[in-house]
Design goal:
Blueprint (H helix, E strand, L loop, with lengths): L6 H4 L4 H16 L6 E6 L5 H15 L8 E7 L5 H17 L6 H14 L28
Helix pairs in contact: 2-3, 4-5
């Protein structure tokens, strides 16, 4: 429900800023300072390189890794050029289809059903952080406050 997002109040007026904030919200839950990571994000805007530097800095500082050793590499890529990103897009699309309550495509419904079978739970709820194969962190936007 993108129409519920208030970018003016919460994201400096930018959907791109929201994208990087959501990446932080996701990654900060699963990164561990005693491991090393390579992070690849889908290209969203022309200021991506600057935003990646900031995302890396904030993620590392969040776990007191002030030398930024935890993140060995972070890069924007075109998802159409990276097969694993295409798989991630497919899975994310299935989750979004289920979340929106869509039913018009038998193929998409079959994919959702198969994922839910393999995952042994529905795609409508967040998973615990200890989940090893598929983590779902569902987001509900804050309501805007009026000044």
């Amino acid at each position: 429900h993108k129409e519920r997002l208030n970018h003016e109040q919460f994201n400096k007026g930018s959907h791109d800023a929201f994208y990087y904030k959501m990446n932080f919200s996701l990654l900060n839950k699963i990164l561990s300072p005693d491991r090393k990571y390579n992070i690849y994000l889908d290209i969203k805007d022309s200021r991506g390189r600057q935003r990646l530097r900031l995302l890396r800095e904030v993620l590392c500082n969040n776990v007191h890794d002030f030398t930024s050793e935890m993140i060995a590499h972070i890069q924007n890529v075109h998802s159409r050029e990276v097969e694993l990103m295409q798989v991630a897009d497919l899975l994310l699309g299935a989750v979004a289809y289920r979340q929106r309550g869509k039913t018009g495509s038998p193929e998409k419904l079959a994919l959702v059903q198969r994922i839910e079978e393999l995952h042994r739970r529905d795609l409508l709820h967040s998973t615990s952080l200890s989940e090893q194969k598929l983590n779902l962190f569902l987001f509900t936007p804050r309501l805007a406050t009026h000044a």
